[in-house]
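To whoever picks this up:

The parser on our side crashed when reading a file containing two proteins. I've narrowed it down to the boundary between the first structure block and the second sequence. Both blocks are reproduced below exactly, byte for byte. First block:
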Amino acid sequence: MRRFVTLLVVVLLAVLLAAAVPEITLFCRAGPEGAAHRAQVDYWNKYLAEKYGFKVKIIEATRADYYTYVNNTLLAGGKTPDILESFSGFTALYGKSGMALDLTDWYYDDTLFPYDRNDWLDIAMKLVTYNGRIYALPTDTNTYLLFYRKDLIPEPPQTWEEAYELAKKFTKKYNKNSPTMYGMAFYGRKSESLPMFWYQIFRSYGGTWWYDRPAFDSEPALKALNWVVKVIKEGLVPPDISTYEYMEILGALQTGQVAMAVQWDAAYPSLRDKNSSPLVWDKMGVAMVPGVMTPEGIRRAHSAHDQMLVINPRSDYKKEAFIFIAWATASPEGAKIYAMAGGSPPRKSILSDPDVLNNFPRFQVKLPALNLWGYAEPQIPDYPEMKDILNTYLAKAWALEIDPETALKQANKEIYDFLKSKGYYK
């Protein structure tokens, strides 16, 4: 009996000790990011939880209205989730409002961040920094690439004008022998991606966000939008291009409907998968997005954004949360797990790792694209609302409801009035 009581006490103590181990929560989007984070969490709980004294629980949420839910959760002021995957377009908002924990001091503490700070892609850390303070760690840095049918196009177009000419060549309306119905596809639906696609053309023409006022009606802006509208009017893209987002572009490439497309680099695994893309999996090439020829050579612009991990400032486990996100984003071990599970960590050593490149050769293009031409969207707290104004007018131009010059003038005026109401202009 005494032995039984002793055994029972031991078992109860073990249960109590197990229950006492903290468990922090990671909230993220379902999809490629969620799958990659799940691989990290599984590894952590199996091999590192005991060493660091806490476990991690992953919660995956639907992609629809995901960021709205994240921001509403942070505004609500609850203690959980401890870590939330968010979008770098909100960095300035988080910094100004205190919605996300300021990580700067911990980031520069070698006892908490024992990883190579020089290994980040420069653009990735810019995207999580506001007024010199760090409000997240970048977990996945994405950019657009030009996906093209290498069996049809031996050399990808280097400039937007070359892209126009090739798109015409591979559109049946102009070439009855074209193996594809249309030459090109790109983003057209009003979404976070639409302005980011257009920015690349705008900035490659020499555009900048502002002069003394917003510069979205400048000459480079008009050249960029005229290029888009010309391609749409001439029918070089599918007629429903104003409804195109990620899945529509992916489908147009997978079915052989188009010869090339500007698409987020995250589409590469699907396009190179024999089961997902049986018609094109062995015919798909990738290149940097086109640019504009200048006396100094071709000037390109690669939109970049981070999927980033922020810490809930009201969490009871802030330090544990930081230890986990540091490991997940910056350690050679954690970042490689993320990459091999389909993610795109912004660590130069991982993007050039032979094992990773063997599975994801697009990184050979992506790494120099972001190093040479990557840029961040405007880092101001009110940027999401400003972007929505621009988005509205670009979408109208895409749908041919309004001419490019009028669209940009109206967008620029509304952006100026909005920023003035927020105190940016007197």
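<<boundary where parser fails>>
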Amino acid sequence: MNNITISLIYLITSCLILIIGKWLYLKFLKYDMYKEIRSENPMGIIPYCGFLLGNCAILAGAFIGPDTQKAFWCEYGYYIFYAFLGIFLMLFSGFIVEKAILHKFNNVLEITRDRNLGTAAVYFGIYLACGLIISACVYGETLNPNGKLYELIATLSYYFLGMIFLIIFAKIHNKLTPYSLLKEIENDNASVGISLAGHIIAIGIILMKASIGDMGEIAQNIRTYAVDLCAILLLLPFVRIILDRIISKNINIAREIKNNNIAAGLGEAFVIVCFAILIFFMVDFTSII
């Protein structure tokens, strides 16, 4: 089978998976997304945009993953399996947002009735971060003799570790800020939600780095993962220092975000994401293990 035919098969399959993914997303969604679109409520589709991007990240990871030199249809089946696994894990991530992160108010009403941009932004961030983490898990090659079963276990382990850390980070971040994240988001403070979404995406990028690569022994992987998590806790606070002292030295970012200054929220979110991208490409934590 030539490369053009293989590419067309994967492209058509990917489009079908995205369509099925949207159908499943709408089945689990607790509001009518199309109704919100017709009523010109952009908050109704923002979470789905994060879900779609996360899904595309998983498809890309599965596609450019390891070449096992096996038959085409074997690799094709691997691709489809991890694509659907990623969809269901991202759907579960939406449940995590509702029950563990934005748990003090009705998320559906915030998005539909109040058109709360902050709530929608957090969902966008979680879905995208989840997609990046899963993408890294399905990209690497299994070096363990248990083969595909080990890879599946490792993928699920990294996913749940990532989700647990995201929840812990949200709690810590809430304690470190001079205001209550949940209270501000519930009060329609879009800037706080955008800022939190930026932090979540940044962590997703760094956890992607922690999860990517060959899957060897569990003990070695966990040590590497732990070092990456420590690096997140140590390095990300410097972003606020850089933002406060260099980029926005004439304003108080925390105060502006609390005052619902969307420009300040976007500025902090993008600086943190850019910083995480630099860490992803330039910092090698595994060399110190």
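After patching the parser it read the second block fine. The two ends are 43 Å apart (CA to CA). Residues 3-288 form one domain.
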